[in-house]
Amino acid sequence: VQLQASGGGLVQAGGSLRLSCAASGRTFSIYAMGWFRQAPGKERDIVAAISWSGGGIYYADSVKGRFTISSDNAKDTVFLQMNSLKPEDTAVYYCGGRRSGSNWLDAKAYDYWGQGTLVTVSS
Predict the structure, then answer these.
(1) Structure confidence at residue 52 (pLDDT)
(2) pLDDT in tens, 68-82
(3) How far apart are CA 49 and CA 15, in angstroms?
(4) Each residue of 37-64: pLDDT tens digit?
(5) Are 4 and 96 in contact (CB under 8 A)?
(6) How far are the Cα atoms of 12, 63, 65, 73, 100 from residue 83, in angstroms, in the given order?
(7) Residues 48-61 as b or e (16 or more Cβ within 10 Å = b)
(8) How many CB atoms lie within 10 A of CB 26?
(9) How many CA atoms lie within 13 A of 116 on its CB side?
């Protein structure tokens, strides 16, 4: 499975960005897709995740009410709509794919990763 993330950029605080992650290859093996972010010197933390069936969705407390994760299963693509962005949202954002339903919120358990896209929020 290959994941291609896009949509990052520079935005002012309060602005919006939409990230996309297109999966290709043996996508039928994926149970869940997640968005993670990693700031310099910090660990890769989960932002949001969605099961491929759409039956399960998770948001980190820090983004609840501001970010929305969604999927277009026909196109094997996952989106992250980010509104009301804050400077503390600045990070490299990665999309990941998990084959199993267990530990689908844990970055260390993810099987596939995209290349990362930088989101910079200026104050």
Answers:
(1) 84
(2) 999 998 889 999 999
(3) 22
(4) 999 999 999 999 999 876 799 999 999 9
(5) no
(6) 11, 9, 9, 23, 30
(7) bbbbbeeeeebbbe
(8) 11
(9) 9
Q: What whole-number distance in Å separates Cα of residue 98 and Cα of residue 105?
A: 9
Look at strands 57-59 and 45-51 and give their pairing. antiparallel
Distances (CA, A) of 112 to 15, 68, 95: 29, 21, 8
What is residue 73's predicted lDDT score, i.e. its pLDDT? 85
Instruction: Provide the token pair at 5.
Output: 């993330």
Q: Encoding tokens for residue 49? A: 């995740």
From the list 15, 42, 10, 27, the residue with the least C-alpha distance to 95 is 27
What is the three-class DSSP state of 89?
helix
pLDDT of residue 101: 85
- d(CA 26, CA 47) in angstroms, rounded, equals 24
3-class secondary-structure state, position 120:
strand
